[in-house]
């Protein structure tokens, strides 16, 4: 499915939840973020960052994105689209492989 979600919070604890599928994220302001909800290996999250500012993207609690530590956010620049795929319950990867 697809959804439009307003980014929230400034930590892993209060970021806006997003689910597998396509999400357009609005409200990025260099501080707020979204947190992926854990699915199953093979799940795909396609994220489009709305115009304006950078967005923090957090993995599900206890998981990691690329080479970051558990619960670490990647920061993506405004106006990009990218894909994150779930490899295991605790490891996610971006496509393309974004800096982390």
Keywords:
single chain, 100 residues, mainly beta, six-stranded mixed β-sheet, four-stranded mixed β-sheet, 0% helix
Strand order of the largest sheet: 1-3-5-9-10-7
Number of helices: 0
- What is the averaged pLDDT score? 93
Question: Low-confidence segments, ≥5 residues, pLDDT <50?
Answer: none
Q: Radius of gyration over alpha carbons?
A: 12 Å
- Helicity level: under 10%
Strand percentage: 35-45%
Q: What does the model show?
A:
This protein is mainly beta and 100 residues long. Helix content is 0%, strand content 44%. It has strands spanning 2-6, 16-18, 21-26, 33-36, 44-49, 55-58, 64-65, 74-76, 81-86, 91-95. A six-stranded mixed beta sheet has the order 1-3-5-9-10-7, with no helix packed on it. Strands 2-4-6-8 form a four-stranded mixed beta sheet, with no helix packed on it. It is globular and about 30 Å long. It starts with a strand and ends in a 5-residue tail after the last strand.
């Amino acid at each position: 499915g697809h959804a439009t979600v307003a980014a929230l919070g400034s930590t892993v604890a209060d970021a806006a939840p997003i689910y597998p599928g396509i999400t357009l994220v609005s409200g990025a302001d260099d501080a707020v973020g979204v947190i992926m909800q854990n699915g199953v290996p093979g799940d795909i999250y396609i994220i489009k960052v709305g115009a304006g500012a950078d967005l923090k993207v957090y993995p599900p609690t206890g998981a990691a994105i690329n080479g970051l530590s558990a619960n670490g956010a990647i920061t993506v620049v405004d106006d990009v689209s990218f894909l994150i795929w779930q490899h295991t319950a605790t490891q996610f990867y971006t496509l393309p492989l974004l800096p982390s």
